[in-house]
Write a structure and sequence with these properties.
The protein has 976 residues and is of the alpha+beta class. It contains 13 helices and 68 strands. The protein is flat.
């Protein structure tokens, strides 16, 4: 096996290491490879097991590996320890108990503790080939070529139970242990299954009373068996393949496999997966017998030679250990969306997706930013590249032959006409276009609008009147002459709207309420209400109403007749509309919306909003306020979405969102499939930056972690054992220490510093979807044990001693008349001295703190002034660092974050983070007025990475943009 393994490993390693994500040829399953890139110790995987906790264990050609879905921990032979793995070639792994595993190598069997993560016993069976078998309870047997053994739990040893009187072609595939602890063996060339049972696995006596019985399994001799759990796949002497479920005692005929054996060679393993039967071939590859097609074969993954397989029925995963490709994980395809990537359609297309539309023929139309209009017939079927066409005002081409050249044709808006199949096309031009199905081309409406403008919204009032929301010219009314084959522009009128004496000319989106009111999202001025009958308008500054920089509107989505959602560059705004009165409410990072630049919003039938942002797609529930971000997960291949590119098909409900390099679509029913939620586990405890054995700090019942006060700075790492979803979000709280739950995020490690002595409860919960209302939760009690001198008895003793000493000293002073003299001196000069001291401190404060002294009204004492002065020095020296915050300052001041926060707020009345924000904005204003630095340099010098965030905060403080502020104050400085 060694030479063959090494040869195949060399042949396939170079190819398979690059295969991160692979897909079955049939398209029914998806697969993912776990190899050295994830930390696997060796690419040859001989055995796989999932323990009772849910962790995956891989036995490789070089060590034992534990995988939790995110990280891999490797265990190898280390003879410097008292007990260790006797060999690094791990051929088999079985359950030994809830907290123990049998790890079998080519040298023997090792008892491995999952608590201490170490080997606690070794067992050798010289001169006999053996295989260990057990059930989930740990009832364990060893089957050898000559003898059968069972594991006596009380004596912690294997006891010989009887002789092996059967011929077994393959030990590993010929036996299993049921949930009662009985051993079942299916010999070769026999029709029966034999059963071995004991009264107990924990008897005090080493004398065994083995009971052996048999039952008829099949009418013909069985020449090959393949057993997983209690499911037996066997081939009889006539080459007929059967499945036998031992727990249900049911047998199912699959098909005759004689032809397959002659065609593909011998089978290494046979097992069911979902409705199909999978066969791993000795020569390499996987043969799928498809239940939906009367078990016809489908040869897949000929690049793999399979050593081992394990089925996780709860999560629906098939784990396969391969010869040279690591672990390959198979599952049903779990894609939330279908992706259409422009680069796969044609290498000549480089523009973003902007406009999107479908028609009742099943055609998808895509407007691009530069490459015109793309037509995809029958978009829900398999993509036929040869049928794709691209249109521009110059004509049409087959997409496979298209070359852009020097022309640039951006398409921003697609809107079906009220009557007929044709649709309007909004472009960057002085002309108005529509697509004609009859002539199959883009047709310009005769006559010009005069203004070269971008059309981003269109409302067809009737056959001859259009309202255009444009970027660059504002709102335009166009009257058409439709008496000709091609409509003509009779006249047009531009309506001018103003906000704060500034004309609004840039509209990004349009929502029509009823049949006479237009709501337009402007770039920079908020929402505009326009009555097309009265030609009246009103401007609503969302920034003025909400106190946030949300006037730059990118998209609008109608929720119902009086409710619209507004996507802006700084978050989502929910707007309730009552006539001309509106009530907006803000939804941003504080409300859990991770990405605040909202490019597109689509509502599904369940009332859920699907939001395209500059970093991922967000699923948002307006009822619960919950949100979940998909960023290159659930099959989504688009990470950055674009403006104008959101649409819901009126024909089938498909939801579309377009991005910088393609678009995705889905039906909202795809999001309602219930998911399995595995449990959370605590994986690591790190004390003072050093990982320790977590189990040593548990109490015996594992319900409490006990730490001494000297180790009260620690971090905990946790994980949900979900092997299908990488984008799990976690929230946590240390009850009694934290005031509230953390926001959900993908971070799975938390650090606690200087936790005071006491008893706390650490809770972690996770979710995979915005609609989650019941979270899987993990909790454990954490107790910080104080030093002896911090106990209440120590405090009482020390306090009593101090009181006695002080009492004696005070009595002595009293006898000498000290208090009488002190009272007279105080009466004479006490008040004057105090006033002098306060004046000196105030002078010192103004000198030390300068213009910032007003921010610290409660800072009076010299120690307090020195404390604040040091903070100001640290802020000034580290202002350009984005990580500058309360925690950073606390570390520099050598005190805990909690103590720092309390002391700072006592002296200033505001939180440290708010003061840092004020400092940054003041510093930015100073740099803008006193230096010639660019605005971007100013932003970087004050430690802000997000330009939109800086603009928002600057406008909130100074009521204007950085550019205007510089113009005003630099001009004033020059004049002076």
């Amino acid at each position: 096996m060694g030479r063959g393994f090494h040869y195949i490993k060399i042949c396939f390693a170079a190819i398979l290491m690059a295969c991160v994500q692979l897909v079955f040829a049939s398209g029914s399953y998806s697969s993912f490879t776990i190899n050295h890139l994830q930390g696997l110790s060796n690419s040859a995987v001989l055995s796989i097991l999932q323990d009772n906790q849910g962790l995956m264990w891989f036995g490789t050609y070089d060590g034992l590996n534990c995988y939790d879905g995110r990280t891999i921990e490797v265990f190898r032979t280390d003879f410097s320890k008292g007990r260790t793995l006797d060999n690094n070639i791990i051929s088999r792994i079985q359950i030994a108990a809830d907290d123990k595993l049998w790890v079998q190598s080519f040298s023997g069997v090792n008892l491995f503790s999952t608590d201490s993560l170490s080997v606690i016993d070794n067992y050798i069976f010289p001169d006999e080939e053996t295989i260990v078998f057990s059930n989930r309870k740990g009832n364990s047997w060893i089957v050898g070529k000559r003898n059968i053994y069972y594991y006596n739990v009380r004596h912690r040893c294997f006891v010989k139970a009887g002789k092996m009187n059967f011929h077994l072609d393959n030990l590993q595939q010929s036996a299993f242990v049921d949930e009662k602890g009985e051993l079942h063996i299916v010999p070769v060339n026999d029709t029966k299954m034999y059963h071995f049972s004991l009264n107990s696995f924990s008897t005090d006596s080493l004398q065994t009373n083995l009971q052996v019985t048999s039952s008829l399994l099949h009418s013909k001799p069985i020449k090959k068996t393949f057993i997983q759990s209690e499911v037996i796949c066997f081939i009889d002497s006539a080459d007929d393949l059967y499945l036998y479920d031992a727990s249900k005692k049911s047998k199912v005929y699959i098909r005759n496999v004689g032809e397959l054996l002659r065609k593909y060679g011998s089978f290494m393993n046979v097992f069911p997966f979902y409705d199909d039967v999978l066969i791993t071939l000795h020569t390499g590859g996987i043969l799928r017998l498809m239940a939906s097609q009367q078990y016809q074969e489908d040869l897949m993954r000929v690049d793999l030679r399979i050593f081992s397989a394990y089925t996780d029925s709860q999560q629906g995963i098939l784990w396969m250990g391969t010869d040279g490709a690591g672990v390959v994980k198979f599952a049903k395809k779990d894609a939330l969306v279908t992706n259409l990537m422009l680069s796969r359609m044609s290498p000549s297309i480089s523009g973003q997706v902007r406009g999107i539309m479908t028609d009742h023929y099943g055609t998808l139309w895509i407007g691009t930013k530069g490459d015109g209009l793309i037509r995809i017939p029958n978009y829900q079927k398999e993509l036929d590249i040869n049928s794709l066409l691209i249109y521009s005002p110059k004509g049409k081409w087959a997409l496979s032959e298209y070359v852009r050249g020097p022309n640039f044709y951006p398409v921003f808006m697609l809107k079906k006409k009220n009557h007929g199949d044709d649709f309007w096309v909004g472009m960057s031009d002085s002309l108005l276009y529509y697509y004609s199905y009859q002539s199959d081309k883009l047709v310009p409406v005769q006559g010009s609008i005069k203004y070269s403008t971008e059309i981003h919204g269109l409302y067809e009032e009737n056959d001859s009147v259009l309202w255009l929301a444009t970027l660059g010219t504002g709102l335009i009314k166009v009257v058409l002459d439709v008496s000709h084959d091609v409509p003509q522009i009779k006249r047009f009128r531009r309506f001018r709207c103003f906000a704060e004496q500034k004309e609004i000319v840039e509209y990004s989106s349009l929502w029509v309420q009823g049949d006479s009111v237009l709501w337009m999202g402007s770039r920079g001025q908020g929402l505009v209400w326009f009555d097309i009958r009265k030609n009246e308008y009103q401007v609503y500054s969302l920034r003025a109403m909400l106190g946030k920089a949300v006037n730059d509107v990118l998209c609008l989505c109608e929720y119902d007749k009086s409710h619209v959602f507004v996507g802006t560059t700084a978050g989502l705004v929910s707007v309730q509309v009552n006539g001309r009165n509106i009530v907006p409410s803000y939804i941003g990072r504080e409300q859990g919306l991770v990405n605040e630049m909202v490019h597109g919003i689509v509502k599904d039938d369940a009332g859920i909003l699907w939001i395209g942002t500059n970093k991922g797609m967000i699923k948002y529930d307006p009822v619960s306020g919950g949100s979940y971000t998909y960023y290159y997960s659930k099959g989504i291949e688009i990470g950055e979405f674009s403006d104008d590119s959101y649409y819901r098909s009126p024909y089938n409900g498909d939801i579309f969102l377009g991005g910088v390099d393609g678009l995705l679509y889905m039906n909202d029913r795809q999001s309602s499939i219930p998911e399995y939620y595995p449990k959370l586990v605590l994986r690591k405890l790190i004390i003072d930056r050093e990982e320790v054995n977590l189990n040593r700090y548990y109490t015996d019942d594992k319900k409490m972690i006990v730490l001494p006060e000297g180790q009260n700075t620690f971090s905990l790492q946790f994980v949900a054992l979900d092997y299908l979803n990488a984008d799990i979000e976690y929230a946590y709280i240390l009850e009694g220490y934290d005031e509230k739950w953390s926001l959900f995020s993908k971070e799975n490690e938390v650090v606690f510093k200087d936790v005071p002595p006491g008893k706390y409860v650490f809770r972690v919960r996770y979710k995979k979807d915005v609609l989650d209302t019941v979270y899987e939760e993990y909790s454990v009690v954490i107790k910080i044990v104080p030093f002896w001198y911090h106990t209440i008895w120590a405090y009482l003793g020390i306090s009593l001693f101090i009181i006695l000493c002080l009492s004696g000293y005070v009595y002595r002073l009293y006898r000498k008349g000290f208090f009488s003299r002190l009272a007279r001196a105080w009466a004479i000069s006490g008040r004057g001295l105090e006033e002098i001291r306060l004046e000196e401190n105030l002078s010192m404060k103004e000198k030390a703190l300068g213009s910032w002294s007003a921010y610290f009204p409660y800072c009076i004492e010299s120690e307090q002034i020195t404390f604040i002065q040091r903070i100001l020095e640290i802020i000034e020296a580290n202002l350009d660092k984005e990580e500058l915050g309360p925690t950073f300052l606390a570390e520099k001041m050598h005190i805990s974050p909690r103590q720092f926060y309390r002391k700072f707020k006592d002296l200033s009345g505001i939180a440290p983070s708010d003061f840092i924000k004020k400092y940054r904005m003041d510093k930015a204003a100073q740099l803008l007025s006193d230096t010639d630095m660019s605005i971007q340099e100013v932003i970087e010098s004050v430690g802000i990475s997000s330009r939109p965030y800086f603009y928002k905060e600057f406008a909130d403080k100074y009521g204007t943009t950085p550019k205007n502020y510089r113009a005003q104050h630099k001009g004033a400085a020059s004049a002076n």
